[in-house]
Amino acid sequence: MRLIPALLFTTLLLQTALGEAPRPNILLIVSDDQGYADAGFQGSRDIVTPHLDRLAAKGIRFTNGYVTHAFCSPSRAGLMTGRYQQRFGHERNVFHDPSDHTEGLPTTETLLPARLRATGYMTGWIGKWHLGAAPEFVPARRGFAETFGFIGGGHRFRDWKPNAAEEYFVPLERNGRPVEVTGHLTTVLGNEAVNFVNRHTDKPWFLYLAFNAPHNPQQPTDERLARFAAIKSPLRQKYAAQISLMDDVIGETLAALHASGQAERTLVIFFSDNGGTPANITGADNTPLRGAKGLPYEGGIRVPFLVSWPGHLPSGSTEHRPVSAIDVFATALAVAGAEMPKDRIYDSVNLIPFLTGENSGAPHERLFWRNGGQWAIREGDWKLVRLRGQPDELYHLSQDIGEKKDLASKQPAVAARLATALAAWDQELIDPVFLGLEEHNAAAKKAPRKTTP
After folding, report:
1. CATH match for 373-427 among 3.40.50.300, 3.40.50.150, 3.30.1120.10, 3.40.50.620
2. Which helix (H) or strand (E) holds 224?
3. Which of 51, 69, 72, 364 is catalytic?
4. What is the pTM for the complete model shown?
């Protein structure tokens, strides 16, 4: 692993403060429900991702990259705030209702784009939002200067007739106004990203490119589907085609960086918002991890994770220390030359000194998760999982990545230590501040109403 001199990061910040060096762009790319094994750089043999593989070859691949929640909306809330989302009650997937002023990321939180915009960054959002549909929750009100995408938690990819009353059929919006689009949605989002990159070459920018692929519904084009005819499972064949198209448009976005001369001054971050959905639903593969989206086991929270910054971070390296998507917040502020806010508890860590070799320790002493009646804590290689009403489970991840051998009875002191730390963290949190999609759907069984497909 090639290490950057320890003074590089400090020098960069000093130069930025003095106006002697351009601040880097920040390109944050998030896929949706992508399985841990579903990329070439993760070892997949049936899903080809040459552009993401090239990004991994020129950057850093994290083998222990996590998100803060096993569901889409809470995961994004932690990402955008630099705080565990349970600190402000965003523990559930929001229900799509533009008239509901509680179902959304609380406006008491200041998001990353707002903080970057205050320092002079151009800020853009393209793709999926899923952090509230009422006017006060939408991207333009949370710090994004340019917006394009859909506000809900999912959308059809092809052949939809816009219908504002149904979440997966809502019109796409550009800067708050409905627009008509043609073609596959993933291609549309990619074209928007390329245009954003080409338009903004004179000042630093932050672009949040949030795909809804490979989330359901799986709707690849016939041409793309034919490329994966060798895959026997029709479900996985469609899923692979969706990821393949996403990889291609990511490649086009990265090519635009190179063509416009911005590649060397752009920090690129890629990961999935949570683990892959169970294979019988989308065709995702979380091998060798246990579990899937929605669960506190590794398959729900450990994700494909890449970081690249040519000339500033190691090239073609692998990082094994646990990191979290929550760290994007502090890392982005640091490279932008902005100070971390001190108005409340932040859980985000600036990763740059750890990646350059300036700091040889672990970015986090512990990582935590809570989702209703499910909890987890990771400390070093130890992980404790708690499911309400069941005995605590303890796993040693470096020896048992699949969480097959529960060591709680053999290592009671370790289990007790992690349980104590988990309880202390849990005491810092608040209850959910809105019902969420799952609760709305449960209520709909008693009083049927139209919900997300």
Report:
1. 3.30.1120.10
2. helix 222-226
3. 72
4. 0.94
